[in-house]
Design a protein that fits this description.
single chain; alpha+beta; about 15% helix; binds zinc ion
Amino acid sequence: MDYFVNKNSQLTGIHKIHKETCTRMPNKCNKIHLGKFYTDYAAKDEARKYYANSGYCSYCCKDNKPERY
Ligand SMILES: [Zn+2]
């Protein structure tokens, strides 16, 4: 599964991590391709290299425990 991180942060300052299949995916110029990962956790490790305050999208990564914002 390919993962992406939104270049634009939420109002909370969180940069959301999405799977390629997500319907809430930001448009092409507003996201960074993180690469292919087997777990959301691995994708988040990669996202943290870009944004220290990254978090899972609540639509496509909802299987994870909610982040504390
Ligand atoms: Zn998503």
